[in-house]
């Protein structure tokens, strides 16, 4: 995996010090080297064990997702009856959540490329959302996972819309922080789709819309396809029941948007998650990159079904450490990661969904002000 350390530099690795929950956390270059070796060894152990169990798991999830989608869409055709509409909408919403979180996100990270199965190829997979897969692979797989929480480089810090770090310079626009956050949540698939467009750079005059013509064409093509499928084709197939199918599809998309937004925000922006400066990471080693991933992420506690529906992004720390390992393995290695972090004095941020999202929204309101 490409990291921020791949760029040529003459600077020397430096000791990194952070204050987390009132406590000082220090990582020297020597400590980082040892820390990195332990995590590399853990990753190699998991990779050596990959096999039929992992393939069977993802194929079962795909089968469940397709079953939910077919059953959900079929029930919506009888949506004039409230129980049918509620059941169909719920099943369709769950299928979209699985497609995005546990299937699409993880396959496109290359977690199953080792199988050689074209259906599980990270380069060829396309998901059921407005964002083109090829653009997401660049903005997320490369930019975000390389420069995680480096203010000024990781555009997921605020998504170019929000002020989510005190290191982001305040301007009057951010008084609307809670409003922008709410709109991003309910329209999340479109926010993700526009991410690669870099609208904040366009409005700042750094680049022009013409520079993003190819990106814009890709967004328009994918968004048009998704809109026609959910809001034209399936409603028309339902004939006189079209309004109920239309409403069911819209509600299912809303379910997926809100859920994925909440899970992602809880993994990146809760209290005590750290941001880093470009200067701090100039000569970053592999071990220091691991250190940044741990401090720049947070986990969610919950049961097995909760973890599946979150795409196992409830183990955001492990995902940021090892994004190309099948995500269902993260639950197994989380205790090992936590134990290693504990020995090196590195905080391991985890908590229930309600607690984590509460701290996220507290931060959103707080940072709306100068």
From TrEMBL:
The keyword Nuclease does not apply. Pfam families: FA_desaturase. InterPro entries: FA_desaturase_dom (IPR005804), Fatty_acid_desaturase (IPR012171). Residues 84-350 form the Fatty acid desaturase domain. It comes from the Bacteria. One of its GO terms (molecular function) is oxidoreductase activity, acting on paired donors, with oxidation of a pair of donors resulting in the reduction of molecular oxygen to two molecules of water. GO terms for cellular component: membrane. This is Fatty acid desaturase. It comes from Mycolicibacterium rhodesiae (strain NBB3) (Mycobacterium rhodesiae). The lineage of its organism: Bacteria, Bacillati, Actinomycetota, Actinomycetes, Mycobacteriales.
């Amino acid at each position: 995996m490409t990291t921020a350390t791949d760029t040529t530099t003459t600077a020397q690795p430096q000791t990194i010090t952070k204050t987390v929950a009132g406590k000082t956390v220090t990582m020297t270059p020597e400590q980082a080297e040892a820390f990195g070796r332990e995590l590399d060894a853990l990753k190699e152990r998991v990779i050596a064990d990959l096999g039929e169990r992992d393939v069977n798991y993802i194929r079962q999830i795909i089968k469940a997702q397709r079953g939910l989608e077919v059953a959900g869409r079929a029930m919506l055709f009888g949506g004039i009856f409230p129980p049918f509409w509620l059941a169909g909408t719920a099943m369709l919403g769950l299928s979209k959540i699985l497609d995005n979180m546990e299937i699409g996100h993880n396959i496109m990270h290359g977690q199953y490329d080792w199988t050689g199965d074209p259906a599980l190829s990270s380069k060829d997979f396309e998901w059921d959302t407005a964002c083109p897969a090829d653009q997401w692979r660049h903005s997320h797989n490369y930019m975000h996972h390389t420069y995680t929480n480096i203010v000024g480089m990781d555009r997921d810090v605020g998504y170019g819309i929000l002020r989510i770090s005190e290191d982001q310079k305040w301007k009057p626009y951010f008084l609307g922080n809670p409003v922008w956050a709410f709109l991003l949540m309910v329209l999340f698939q479109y926010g993700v789709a526009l991410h690669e467009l870099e609208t904040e750079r366009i409005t700042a005059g750094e680049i022009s819309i013409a520079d993003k013509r190819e990106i814009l064409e890709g967004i328009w093509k994918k968004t048009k396809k998704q809109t026609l499928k959910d809001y034209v084709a399936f409603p028309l197939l339902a004939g006189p029941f079209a309004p109920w199918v239309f409403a069911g599809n819209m509600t299912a998309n809303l379910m997926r948007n809100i859920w994925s937004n909440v899970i992602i925000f809880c993994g990146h922006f809760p209290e005590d998650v750290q941001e880093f400066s470009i200067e701090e990471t100039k000569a970053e080693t592999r071990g220091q990159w691991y250190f940044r991933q741990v401090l720049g992420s947070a986990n969610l506690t919950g049961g097995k079904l909760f973890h599946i529906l979150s795409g196992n992004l409830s183990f955001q720390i492990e995902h940021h450490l090892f994004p190309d390992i099948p995500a269902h393995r993260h639950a197994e290695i989380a205790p090992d990661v936590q134990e290693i972090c504990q020995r090196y004095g590195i905080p391991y941020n985890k908590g229930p969904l309600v607690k984590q999202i509460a701290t996220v929204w507290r931060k959103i309101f707080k940072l709306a002000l100068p």
